[in-house]
């Protein structure tokens, strides 16, 4: 079921598509295949608008992020656009005024990156901002910014060490090391690597199983896990217990 006009009217989506099925699984597709699904300003604006819809629409239970075509998940920054004439202030506003990756990371609903091809730079950082990453075997994740005299700007220096440890993060960022599906799983960067022909089916099954769960419990689990890195253990344990008690009270009230 394609997302109805009531949810997308006036969004002006040009670089992405969004579809929602009857289970509440939303599929967000980066849709610039001729440009490697690279991130231009139009795409960033599309993503901000879509995340607002996903956050506000209670019928959407899970978000799957993937790329159009078989070649790329997302090639990162659109270098052609980035090479255009602009002042330093215009560049800052273009890159920081639309913090779509942070918006993705902070969504209260489960997110799955279905990495169907290469995910480079900002594309890798979008995947890092998702809760679950599933890769096609031949897909690859890489952060090549240092080879261009730059550094990652979408959260990789912060999220990658938390996922794979500092040593692996240094290697990937210093050397631009690309990890294919099986290697990404071995490093803890992806949860599964499957043949490309099985990727859509595998992710659809995972998304459907999550969508069938109680939304309030899923949101609570995501909130607790997401905050665990920055929360002292005892505080986190107290928050976990409080969350359980709230869910039990809500379940019992619904049975009454």
Question: Which secondary structure elements does this structure contain, and how are they paired or packed?
Answer:
Blueprint: H1 5-8, E1 16-20, E2 25-30, H2 41-56, E3 62-67, E4 72-74, H3 79-82, H4 88-96, H5 100-105, E5 111-115, E6 118-120, H6 122-128, E7 132-136, E8 140-142, H7 156-164, H8 166-175, E9 179-180, H9 181-186, E10 192-194, H10 196-211, H11 215-227, H12 233-255
Parallel strand pairs: 2-3, 3-5, 4-6, 5-7, 6-8, 7-10
Antiparallel strand pairs: 1-2, 8-9
Helix pairs in contact: 7-8, 11-12
Walk me through this protein's architecture.
- With 256 residues, the chain is an alpha/beta fold.
- It has two domains: 5-211, 2-enoyl-CoA Hydratase, Chain A, domain 1 (Alpha-Beta Complex), CATH 3.90.226.10; 215-255.
- 48% of the residues lie in helices and 16% in strands.
- It has twelve helices and ten strands.
- The protein has helices spanning 5-8, 41-56, 79-82, 88-96, 100-105, 122-128, 156-164, 166-175, 181-186, 196-211, 215-227, 233-255; strands at 16-20, 25-30, 62-67, 72-74, 111-115, 118-120, 132-136, 140-142, 179-180, 192-194.
- A six-stranded mixed beta sheet has the order 1-2-3-5-7-10, sandwiched between helices.
- A hairpin with a 4-residue loop joins strand 1 (16-20) and strand 2.
- Helix 7 (156-164) crosses helix 8 (166-175).
- The longest helix has 23 residues, at 233-255.
- The protein is globular and about 65 Å long.
- The model has no long low-confidence stretch (mean pLDDT 91).
Summarize the structure.
With 256 residues, this protein is of the alpha/beta class.
């Amino acid at each position: 079921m394609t997302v109805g006009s009531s949810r997308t009217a006036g969004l002006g989506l040009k670089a992405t598509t969004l579809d929602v099925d009857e289970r509440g699984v939303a599929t967000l597709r980066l849709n610039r295949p001729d440009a490697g699904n690279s991130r231009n300003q139009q795409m960033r604006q599309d993503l901000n608008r879509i995340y607002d819809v996903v956050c506000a629409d209670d019928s959407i239970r899970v978000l799957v992020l993937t790329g159009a075509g078989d070649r790329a998940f997302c090639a990162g920054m659109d270098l052609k656009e980035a090479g255009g004439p602009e002042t330093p202030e215009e560049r800052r506003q273009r890159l920081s005024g639309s913090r779509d990756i942070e918006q993705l990371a902070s969504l209260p609903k489960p997110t799955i990156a279905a990495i169907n091809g290469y995910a480079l730079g900002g594309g890798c950082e979008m995947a890092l901002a998702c809760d679950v990453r599933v890769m096609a075997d031949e897909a690859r994740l890489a952060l090549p910014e240092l080879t261009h005299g730059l550094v990652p700007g979408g959260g990789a220096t912060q999220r990658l060490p938390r996922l794979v440890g500092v040593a692996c993060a240094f290697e990937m960022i210093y050397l631009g090391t690309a990890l294919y599906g099986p290697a990404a799983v071995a490093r803890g960067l992806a949860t599964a690597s499957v043949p490309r022909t099985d990727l859509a089916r595998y992710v659809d099954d995972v998304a459907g199983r999550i969508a069938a769960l109680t939304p309030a419990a899923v949101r609570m689990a995501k909130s607790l896990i997401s905050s665990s890195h920055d929360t002292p253990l005892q505080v986190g344990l107290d928050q976990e217990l409080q969350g359980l008690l709230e869910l039990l009270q809500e379940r019992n009230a619904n049975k009454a």
